[in-house]
Design a protein that fits this description.
This protein has about 260 residues and is mainly alpha-helical. The protein has 11 helices and 2 strands.
Length: about 260
């Protein structure tokens, strides 16, 4: 996947850091009659800061070149922010009971996304790592059987045993091209080398298997559809106009 797409996702998420809740009753009533996402546009800063997209793309690109783990971290941050209360950067708020500690559904199904989006966005696991504790049961004691998950690739299993000495050890979600944003995640599923159970089930489930096969065989399809699905994610309950406030400190509301 071309880096400019990833930078675009980061750009959209970054620009929304300035908008937060609370939403007034009047604003909630007005939101019923319109789609806030209709207020968004890529050219919004053309007059006030025409180079903003290039600046952020270059800056984020430089960061990721120095530390490749930032790319999956930024994607995960965006997913978690949008999944709980919409894309309002409320995940950055730091207080007891805040969104930082909320349970997040990995499917986002309740937020207006469909099965196609689920399969596509799961492809974000083509980069990033997972701690062994999140899948160790597949390696040693699948469903209490005392045996490995029978769906695991027989060549993949020994590698996982070798790398997981402790539950805190980390393993790449895509062991073939771990730092490249591509469609190899899907070919891994075809080879029964999906790291997480939820990943591998996308290929074993008849409702999603065909989409996995399409993504695996058509790299450009994945790239294009990922851009579409990411935009849908970032339109979830987004705040615009006079909804919320511009935060002076990203971690706190401006006033109690």
């Amino acid at each position: 996947m071309k880096f400019r797409y990833l930078a675009l996702f980061v750009l959209l998420g970054h620009l929304k850091l300035s908008v937060i809740e609370p939403v007034t009753a009047a604003a909630q009533k007005a939101a019923v009659s319109r789609n806030p996402a209709d207020d968004l546009s890529m050219g919004f800063y053309d007059n006030t800061c025409p180079d903003v997209e290039d600046i952020i793309q270059q800056t984020v690109g430089a960061w990721i070149q120095k530390d490749s783990t930032l790319a999956p971290s930024l994607l995960r941050l965006l997913f978690h922010d949008c999944a709980v209360r919409g894309c309002d950067a409320s995940i950055l708020l730091n207080f007891t009971g805040s969104e930082r500690t909320a349970f997040v559904s990995s499917t986002l199904r309740a937020k207006g996304l469909d099965v196609s989006d689920l399969v596509t966005l799961s492809g974000a696991h083509t980069i990033g790592r997972a701690s062994c504790g999140t899948f160790i049961n597949r390696v040693y004691d699948f469903n209490g059987t005392g045996k490995p998950d029978p769906s695991l690739n027989t060549h993949y299993l020994p590698m996982l045993k070798k790398r997981c000495k402790r539950s805190t050890d980390l393993v790449h979600l895509d062991v073939i091209t771990p730092t490249t944003f591509d469609n190899v995640y899907y070919t891994n599923l075809q080879r029964k080398a999906g790291l997480l159970t939820t990943d591998q089930e996308l290929f074993s489930d008849p409702k999603t298997a065909a989409s996995v096969e399409a993504m695996a065989s058509q790299p450009e399809l994945f790239q294009n559809q990922f851009a579409v699905s990411m935009i849908k994610v970032q339109n979830i309950e987004v705040l615009t106009r006079n909804e919320g406030e511009v935060r002076v400190n990203c971690n706190f509301l401006n006033s109690p």
